[in-house]
């Protein structure tokens, strides 16, 4: 079965204290015309649709942090897993694989796998869009012909188109409470790897609005749960990630004065 996720008490307390004030409203942007990429070949264009970053989680107390947004129903079918190809780029080794039910996944190995699975659960729990991730203790992959351990399986539905990259400084949500709340989440998770290239837009058809829904989300949370360094990143010899002991010793709030944290 799947390995249980660690409970991160610091994040839970931070969410309880900070998030209600940060994301208690959800602006409804008007339909936005497609924004074309900068002309680089191979980059898909963003189609017309309704931008979405966050949804009010009506069932927040009942959300299942063990299984995450996909629940038990979408967990990978590990009876047979076959290699499609090795993915390029990034800190961690990744493979695109197909499970016994025919669904495609990105299997990520290494130090980021556990932390990213936990981080995606917490981001989803408070209403933000996130990948459907599962942590698999061990799985044999045909084509690689070996068993992989502690693998993050990230679902890649065929009906959902992924567009790479949105900008932290220029997007439909700048200045909104929901966007400020996402920044708070990244700070709570100690996610230091906030490159624009790690951001994704999932283009999904929403029957309720009869239009494309453009789901803005942070698509790579592998830099989460490390220790905090006050040095510029270029001075850090080795940025930290998935270090629960160091993460538990870190702190986010330096003080509170009047209505400012």
Features:
alpha+beta; 4 helices; five-stranded mixed barrel; single chain; 261 residues; 9 strands; four-stranded mixed beta sheet; 18% helix; disordered N terminus
Q: What is the topological layout?
A:
Elements: H1 9-22, E1 50-52, E2 81-86, E3 94-98, E4 104-108, H2 112-125, E5 133-142, E6 146-155, E7 161-164, H3 177-188, E8 199-206, E9 211-218, H4 244-249
Parallel strand pairs: 1-9, 2-5
Antiparallel strand pairs: 2-3, 3-4, 4-6, 5-6, 7-8, 8-9
Q: Overall mean pLDDT score?
A: 84
Into which percentage range does the β-strand content fall? 15-25%
What is the distance, rounded to the nearest whole angstrom, between the alpha carbons of the first and last residues? 42 Å
DSSP summary, beta strand count: 9
H/E element string? HEEEEHEEEHEEH
Rg is 19 Å
Domain tally:
1
Give me the number of helical elements. 4
The low-confidence parts are 3-28, 30-40
What does the largest sheet look like? 5 strands, mixed, barrel
Outline type: globular
Q: How would you write the strand order of the largest sheet? A: 2-3-4-6-5
Notes on the protein architecture:
The protein has 261 residues and is of the alpha+beta class. The protein contains four helices and nine strands. The protein has helices at 9-22, 112-125, 177-188, 244-249, and strands at residues 50-52, 81-86, 94-98, 104-108, 133-142, 146-155, 161-164, 199-206, 211-218. A five-stranded mixed barrel has the order 2-3-4-6-5. Strands 1-9-8-7 form a four-stranded mixed sheet, with no helix packed on it.
């Amino acid at each position: 079965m799947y390995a249980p996720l660690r409970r991160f008490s610091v994040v839970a307390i931070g969410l309880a204290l900070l998030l209600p004030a940060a994301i208690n409203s959800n602006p409804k942007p008007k339909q936005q015309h497609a924004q074309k990429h900068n002309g680089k070949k191979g980059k898909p264009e963003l189609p017309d649709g309704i931008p979405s970053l966050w949804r009010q989680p009506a069932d927040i107390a009942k959300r299942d942090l063990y299984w995450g947004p996909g629940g038990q129903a979408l967990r990978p079918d590990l009876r047979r897993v076959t290699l499609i190809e090795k993915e390029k780029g990034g800190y961690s080794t990744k493979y695109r694989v197909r499970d016994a039910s025919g669904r495609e996944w990105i299997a990520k190995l290494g130090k980021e796998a556990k932390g990213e699975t936990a981080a995606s659960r917490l981001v989803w729990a408070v209403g933000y869009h996130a990948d459907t991730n599962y942590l698999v203790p061990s799985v044999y992959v045909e084509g690689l012909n070996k068993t992989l351990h502690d693998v993050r399986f990230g679902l890649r539905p065929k009906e959902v188109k992924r567009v790479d990259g949105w900008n932290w400084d220029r997007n439909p949500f700048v200045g909104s409470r929901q966007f400020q709340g996402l920044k708070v989440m990244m700070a709570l998770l100690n996610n230091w790897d906030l490159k624009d290239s790690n951001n994704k837009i999932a283009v999904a058809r929403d029957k309720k609005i009869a239009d494309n829904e453009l789901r803005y989300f942070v698509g790579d949370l592998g830099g989460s749960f490390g220790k905090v360094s006050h040095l510029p990143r270029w001075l850090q010899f080795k940025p930290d990630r998935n270090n629960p002991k160091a993460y538990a010793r870190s702190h986010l709030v330096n003080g509170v004065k009047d209505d400012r944290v």
